[in-house]
């Protein structure tokens, strides 16, 4: 149902029924119009946000963004073996970190939340300074694992280290320089969606947002493999 709702809303955006800058109907209005649950609506909006079609402004609403063409990525033939290894790690992360996000939402403390916030702020500042975002990116995922209160989640993330981030393993799949800022901002918007769900202790939405975030990385890598 979530996929069907995403398709319906995406079509309204791409056909310009809703123009860039338009405010989407409220969650309650979408629930009534499409006869779905609030959970389905939230997951659909999260997917649209992850796709860069909308953005949520806290306390105001969700607004349509100008649709952007998908960037093309390629792999050097010598990197194909590594790319399959990274894909395997991403599949592990989807299983592991989806549940991690749900548990973090249920168990996090204010101190955990503060450390996540600092990681996201550092990420944003590094984008503005054209500095590496790998450290803050990893720290964000690390702090979510810590927030579960289960040391084994944190130990697994720490063991994997920054190699869990595809852009540290496969240089040629990085976004072209002229699109890098937009790409990193999109990544951090996905992070913000996860953070917001954890902050309001919404375990289901935190799981959905984390799954979408990691699935985006997996699908981008798969497309690069197919192109190669």
From TrEMBL:
InterPro entries, alphabetized: GntR_C (IPR011711), TF_FadR/GntR_C (IPR008920), Tscrpt_reg_HTH_GntR (IPR000524), WH-like_DNA-bd_sf (IPR036388), WH_DNA-bd_sf (IPR036390)
Keyword Transcription on entry: yes
Domain HTH gntR-type: 1-67
One Pfam family linked to the record: FCD
Keyword entries, A-Z: DNA-binding, Transcription, Transcription regulation
UniProt key word Nucleotide-binding: no
PANTHER family in UniProt: TRANSCRIPTIONAL REGULATOR, GNTR FAMILY, UXU OPERON TRANSCRIPTIONAL REGULATOR
Designated name of the protein: FadR/GntR family transcriptional regulator
Organism the protein comes from: Herbaspirillum lusitanum
